[in-house]
Specification:
Blueprint (H helix, E strand, L loop, with lengths): L2 H10 L9 H11 L1 E5 L8 H9 L4 E4 L3 H13 L4 E4 L5 H12 L5 E4 L7 H7 L6 E4 L17 H10 L3 E6 L4 H10 L7 E4 L7 E7 L3 H16 L8 E5 L3 H13 L4 E4 L5 H12 L5 E4 L12 E6 L6 H8 L9 E7 L3 H11 L5 H19 L4 H9 L13 H7 L7 H15 L5 H9 L4 H5 L16 H13 L3 E4 L5 E4 L1 H7 L29 H4 L5 H21 L3 H4 L2 H10 L4 H4 L7 H17 L1
Parallel strand pairs: 1-6, 1-7, 2-4, 2-5, 3-4, 5-6, 8-13, 9-11, 9-12, 10-11, 12-13
Antiparallel strand pairs: 14-15
Helix pairs in contact: 1-3, 2-3, 13-14, 17-18, 17-21, 18-20, 23-25, 23-27
Bound molecules: adenosine-5'-diphosphate and zinc ion.
């Protein structure tokens, strides 16, 4: 494209310069005809169809579900002298007729259309005769059944695109889940080779942290520490914090608890009367609060730039949901804290929630469960949290090779783990290199542990030098460590049904010693790597040893005794049978069958088959 034509259009719209990514998006769209643009809300996506609309002859159609937003944009365009209008069901019939007549006469450069308009048969027929160089689909994730915002009207858009076959199609979304993106491309018939441009997700001023906690008290301590660090003391006036809680009840109890410490707080959730919610929002916006304790109902349309901390009492459903919520911190660009508290017990709880919510479709349950596990894997950490999120979103260009602010970076920079992290990574990755697209995670663990396994033997993999390279490590440790290598971007999965492992180019470079490994290997014995309180590394004994109530404690003791029996009988160390942590989980969850044991984190099918009965017996006797 001629740079000057794009610049002219930019200036006509009243802007001086493109933001990062905008020119590239416009060039890609004009050259290849199809593009998917993924950028956060406020990232400047609309310019990427407005500029081409001014450059191309004919009437550009913009499909958008948000009438208020359409009206604003049209008003701004008209002010700049651009012939623009919008069509939505909220218009009086007469206005609609006038606008349609002008549209068919070709008087507009840009027309915004609400998706339900597209369903009107007359409109669908007539629009085929419009000279339309570009269809832009805003909020394109509404087309995805996997997304949280699915709108049936959006399903029509694919057909319209096929019927009109415009030379250019641009889909825009702030939703970054890879599955959703692929679905957008597919449903809009854009072709699998369509460029997906991901931009603007980096938030380097956020100090991202995750803390694995034991119980409620632990979570509260984390909240208190984060508030103290970010806001100082009540009355210091250093900005505001948001505490997200998983339930409405917790929002209220936390608000009460913090108020007891002198913080000015309010609870916010969808169960409160509209009036109370209104007051909470106004107090928050007007700076009359130090903290809001809220469910995820809080945040839409909230625009305060000096949120200094966003603390999650428990994990939300996905990396995406988390990033959107934590992204409300530090909009002014000054340092801010994002802290996610999570516990192993959050896993079975989420699983139950997903199943109880009666998602009839087990495929959707599985999908949502995987999104949640991605978040937990991120929380388990090991690699720069900032970079790991950007890699998840596919925003590679903005990764920093270590942000220097997150808990992982600060720990590494303070001397990291006691082990030679690079050497460990090289060992792990050389095992994966042998697996090379043939097997998944489990086999990689067996290979590195040096376990006799027929499938490995058949491939000659029991005779390679990496076989048993990490024999002294536990299965759980190697599994965790490999998970961290995934988060670090060194190992990638491929294949849908049975995902197999491969090294990424970065992983290959680390394995060959051409690149040092910036990561934290997990601690042994399955202990959480650390509690995250910034650079103040504080051992939280409770994180490793969450308080059990009396009944659970006696169950735990019985399980330990049973484990000792098994270990002696089989001549293996106790932790090979099960970690303390796993036994605690069993004590807490009290599974009553082998099947129920599958909900216990850390107990794979193999262990359940081998030791399940004995552990259940011990539990029954306790
Ligand atoms: P999105 O659609 O990605 O949510 P918008 O397109 O509404 O974001 O843009 C957000 C804001 O940024 C708008 O106020 C817009 O005018 C402004 N903006 C976008 N691009 C530029 C630019 N190149 N220079 C200055 N302001 C811009
Ligand atoms: Zn970092």
């Amino acid at each position: 494209m001629s740079p000057s034509a794009a610049d002219d259009a930019l200036h006509a719209l009243g802007f001086d310069a493109f933001r990062a990514g905008q020119r590239e998006a416009i060039e890609t769209l004009l050259e290849s005809g199809r593009a998917l643009l993924v950028a956060p809300t406020g990232g400047g996506k609309s310019l990427c169809y407005q500029v081409p609309a001014l450059m191309l002859p004919g009437t550009t159609i913009v499909i958008s579900p948000l009438v208020a937003l359409m009206a604003d944009q049209v008003a701004a365009l008209q002010q700049r002298g651009v012939a623009a209008t919008y069509l939505a069901a909220t218009l009086p019939a007469e206005t609609m007729q006038q606008r349609l007549a002008a549209l068919w006469r070709g008087e507009y450069r840009i027309v915004y259309v609400a998706p339900e308009r597209l369903a009107a048969a007359g409109f669908r027929e007539r629009i085929k005769q419009l000279d339309c160089p570009l269809i832009a689909v805003d909020e394109a994730h509404c087309i995805s059944e996997w997304g949280h915002d699915f709108r049936p009207e959006y399903m029509q858009i694919g057909e319209i695109v096929r019927e009109l076959a415009p030379p250019h199609v641009l889909a825009c979304t702030a939703t970054a889940t890879p599955v959703v993106r692929d679905e957008i491309v597919h449903r809009l018939d854009m072709g699998p080779e369509t460029a997906q441009l991901v931009h603007g997700f980096a938030r380097p001023n956020l100090a991202l942290r995750a803390a694995e906690v034991g119980g409620q008290r632990d979570r509260q301590q984390q909240v208190d520490a984060a508030l103290a660090e970010a806001l100082g003391r009540p009355g210091d006036g250093r900005g505001v914090a948001i505490v997200y809680t998983p339930t409405r009840k917790l929002a209220e109890t936390e608000a009460g608890r913090l108020a007891g410490q002198g913080w000015r707080t309010r609870a916010y959730h969808a169960g409160l009367p509209a009036e109370d919610r209104q007051i909470a929002q106004e107090d928050f916006m007007a700076g009359r609060l130090d903290a809001v304790c809220a469910t995820n109902a809080f945040g839409m349309g909230i625009d305060r730039s000096d949120v200094r901390a966003v603390v999650h009492f428990g994990p939300p459903g996905s990396i995406e949901a988390y990033y959107q919520e934590v992204g409300r911190a530090g909009r002014d660009g000054d340092p801010a804290i994002g802290l996610l508290c999570w516990a192993q017990s959050d896993l079975p709880q989420r699983r139950r929630l997903l199943e109880r919510d009666g998602e009839a479709d087990s495929e959707i349950v599985a999908h949502k469960w995987n999104l949640f596990l991605e978040l937990i894997r991120w929380a388990e950490g090991g690699a720069c949290r900032h970079d790991a999120i950007l890699r998840y979103f596919g925003d590679e260009a903005e990764t920093l090779a270590g942000c220097g602010r997150c808990d992982v970076c600060t720990t590494i920079d303070a001397g990291g783990s006691d082990e030679d992290a690079t050497l460990l990574a090289r060992k792990l990755l050389s095992g994966v290199a042998r697996i090379h697209g043939r097997f998944g995670m489990k086999m990689a663990v067996k290979l590195l542990r040096g376990e006799q396994e027929e499938r490995l033997e058949r491939q000659g993999l029991t005779r390679v030098s990496t076989f048993g390279l990490l024999a002294e490590r536990s299965e759980a440790w190697i599994t965790r460590a490999l998970g961290r290598c995934v988060t670090a971007g060194w190992i990638v999965f491929s294949g849908d049904q049975h995902p197999v492992l491969r090294l990424s180019p970065d992983g290959d470079a680390v394995m060959r010693g051409r690149q040092s490994a910036r990561w934290l290997p997990p601690g042994e014995a399955g202990a959480p790597s650390r509690s995250a309180s910034g650079s103040r590394r504080r051992a939280t004994p409770s994180a490793d040893d969450p308080a059990l109530d009396a009944a659970a404690q006696s169950a735990f003791d019985a399980l330990r005794a049973a484990r000792l029996d098994i270990a002696q009988r089989e001549g293996v160390p106790a932790y090979v049978v099960a970690h303390d942590r796993t036994l605690r989980e069993i004590a807490r969850l009290r599974p009553d069958s082998l099947a129920a044991m599958e909900a216990v984190p850390g107990l794979g099918p193999a262990k359940i088959a081998r030791y399940g009965e004995a552990l259940l017996d011990a539990l029954a006797d306790a």
